[in-house]
Amino acid sequence: MAQPTDDKRHGPRLRLRDVAALDDRSFDLYIGERFDQLVTAAIADADGRLRPAQHTVLHAPERLQQLCDALTFAEGDLQVGFERMTYQHDARAARTARLLRRVRTALHEVNREAAAARHGEARRREADAEPSSNDVIVTARRWLVDALPDHFNRQFTQTLADAGLSARPAAANVFDTLEEGWCDGHLTAPRTPQVEELLTKGPVAFRGLVADDARAQSARVAALRHPLLQRRWARALAELTDLTVPVARASSASALGPLPEGVYDMPEADAYKIFNARRFLTAVWQRQAEHKRLIHHYAATVTERRRSAPEEEQRRRAVGAAIDRLVNEQPAAAARVLTGLCPHITGDGLIELPAQERTDLKRRLVADARAAAQTPRPPDTALPPAPPARLAVAAVAR
Prior knowledge:
Blueprint: H1 16-19, H2 24-33, H3 35-46, H4 52-58, H5 64-88, H6 93-128, H7 136-147, H8 149-163, H9 174-183, H10 193-200, H11 203-215, H12 230-248, H13 268-307, H14 312-329, H15 331-341, H16 355-374, E1 381-382, E2 395-396
Antiparallel strand pairs: 1-2
C-alpha cells in the first residue's frame, strides 16, 4: 500500500514511522478518530514500529473487532498495491510485499485473539444455561427437532395454544431471530427515518448504497447496521461479491489468489480496471466479516435477553412439552437418535466429541431419524419426557 497522502479535509496523514512518536493520549485519540488512521496504526504495529504501550492499547479487548477490520482492509490494500507496483516496475514493490507478509501474520494472530474471546463468552453463556447443551438427553431432543422440524412446529403451535401463548413459526434462520428479537424489544435500535428509507429502497439502489459503504471505510452508513437490515445487507454483499469476482480475476469468492500473469501485459486502462476491482472486492469482504460478527453479536444478545423475559419461561416449558409430544408421536425416530448417541456418552452423561465428528454424527442420526419417521418400527429405547441435566442411561420404552 502506498504511503498515506495528504487529505484536504483532515490535514496530512501520518506515515508509519511517525505513529510511534505519538504520546499515549494522542495515540488513543488518533486510532479512534478515523478508520484510515486505525489502518495506518495496525500496519505500523504489524511492522514492529509501535511502542509496547501503544501495542497494548491497540489490542485492547474492546478494540479487537475494529483491529480485525483494519488488518483485513490493510491486507487487501497491500496485496493490490504490490500487484500495481509490480505492473509499474515500482521499486517499492519489495517493501510492500514485506509489509503484506507481516500484516497477514498480524491478522492471523488477532483473529486468534478475537476467536478466543468469543469462545470464552460462549462458554460463559453456556455455563449459565441449564441443562448443559452437551447433555445426551438435551442433545438427542434437539437433534430430533432438527430432524423433524415440521412435526415439531405442529406440536409447538398446539402447545402454545393450550398455554394461551401467541404462536409464531420457529425462526428459520438467524435473520428471523434478529427481526423477532427487535420486534420483541430485545434489540433496542430505533427505527429511524434513515432505516425506514433503506427498508423501502429498491434492490439495485440498495446494492449501490452497500457498495458505496464498502468503498467509504471512514464514512460508514450507520443505518445499515440496524437489526432489521441485516438480511438485505447480507444479500447485497453476496451479490457484490458474485459480480466482482470475475472482473477482479479472483481465484474464488473468498480469496484474491495470485494475479493472472497475463494482466501484467495488458494496456494500463485494462489492468487498472482489474486492480480497482480487486481492491473493491477486498473492501466487500471486510464488510462481510464485519456483518458476520455483528449478526452473531445480535443473536447472542437476543438469546441472553430472552432468558430473562417474563414470558420466556412459559415458552421454554411449551418447547419442552412440544418435544415430549414429538417423542410420543415419533418414538422410532427418537430411539434412533438416542441409540446413536449412546456409544459417545461420557461418565457424567455428556457428549464430548471433536467438532467435525459431532457434525458428522449429527448428520447421520438426523437422516436415520427421518427415515424412521417414514417407516416406523417398535423402538428399543425412548427419550424421557423431561430433559434432566445429567443422564447417561436412556429410559426403556414400555
